[in-house]
Amino acid sequence: MEGLTGLQRAAKTCQIQIMSDKKKPHIPGLNPDHIVDHLPSYVSIQDRSLRILFVNASFKRDFGDATGRLCHTVYKGSPDICPNCPVRKTFRDKKVHIAEETVKLSSGKICQIFIQTSPILDSTGAVTAVIEMATNISRVKIDRKELITLGQSIALLSHGIKNILEGLQGGAYVVDQGFKDGDLELAQKGWGIVNKNIFDITDVVQNILYSSKNRPLKYESVLPGELLEDSVQLFREKAAAMKIKLEQQINPTVPKVRLDAAAIRRMLHNLLWNALEACHNDRKKNEHTVIAKSDHFDENHFMFEISDNGIGMDKATQRNVLEEFFSTKGSAGTGLGLAVVDKVVNKHGGRIEVVSEPGKGSSFKTIFNLTKPDK
Question: All domains of the chain, ordered by start, with CATH?
Answer without folding.
Answer: 2-136 (3.30.450.20), 139-213 (1.10.287), 214-375 (3.30.565.10)
